[in-house]
Amino acid sequence: MRKIKIFYLIVIISILFLGLQGCNVADNGHELDININDGMKITSDAFEDNQNIPAKYTCDGQDISPPLDFSGVPPEAESLALIMEDPDAPAKAWIHWVVWNIDPDALHMPEDTKPQGGIEGINDFGSQGYGGPCPPSEKHRYVFKLYALDMKIGLDPSSSAGDLAEAMAGHVIDSAELLGIYGRD
Q: Is-contact 47 58, C-beta < 8 A?
């Protein structure tokens, strides 16, 4: 009898684990549940996924946005949104960049530009636009999160990532992530 209970417990835990495979974006109490799959991709010519971000794109360099490329955007996407965050910041995930209403046909973004058609919101530095990695000491991870949406977002440029997450809820078709690392040695 005990073996049967253990078997069912393992089955239930396995089902729960598999059912929770996904990604959450949380900012200021708003959560956005999405699934990351192999369709859409975000890459950069400046750094590989899970590799170091060159100082040029940080507060120790020119503090300009890196070049980004988008691929596999679903044809039904009406717009794209981009959030760059530092999940290793001490108090909460620190938002470095928030952009919405990016043209879904704009597949390349050169460095030091905002994405075509995009509206930049307010980052956690309190300014509009890109704010590069600027960790206090040790290495931090920086996640560029790209979302394909089934609509355009009607937010004011004074909006935050939390406002964007709330507006995107229920409208995410696909998503992708690019992870960069930066630290002061």
A: no
Q: Could you state, in order of their start, the residue ranges of all structural domains in the chain? A: 25-182
Pair of tokens at residue 181: 């690392």
Single-letter code of the amino acid located at 116: Q
> Looking at the DSSP assignment, which residues form a beta bridge with residue 175?
147
Give CA separation, 121 vs 29, 151, 175, in Å. Answer: 18, 17, 19
> What does the alpha-carbon distance between residue 96 and residue 104 come to, in Å, rounded to a whole number?
22
Question: Which numeric CATH code is attached to 25-182?
Answer: 3.90.280.10
Q: How many other C-beta atoms are found inside a 10 Å radius of the C-beta of residue 139?
A: 13
Q: How many other CB atoms are found less than 10 A from the CB of residue 145?
A: 22
Whole-angstrom distance, CA of residue 130 vs CA of residue 112: 9
Q: Is 58 exposed, middle or buried (0-12, 13-18, 19+ CB in 10 A)?
A: buried
pLDDT in tens, 21-66: 333 444 444 444 444 445 999 999 999 999 999 999 999 999 999 9
| N- to C-terminal Cα separation, the chain | 57
Indicate the DSSP class of residue 114: P
CA distance 170 to 172: 6
C-beta separation of 162 from 104 below 8 A:
no
User: Rounded to two decimals, what is the model's pTM?
Assistant: 0.80
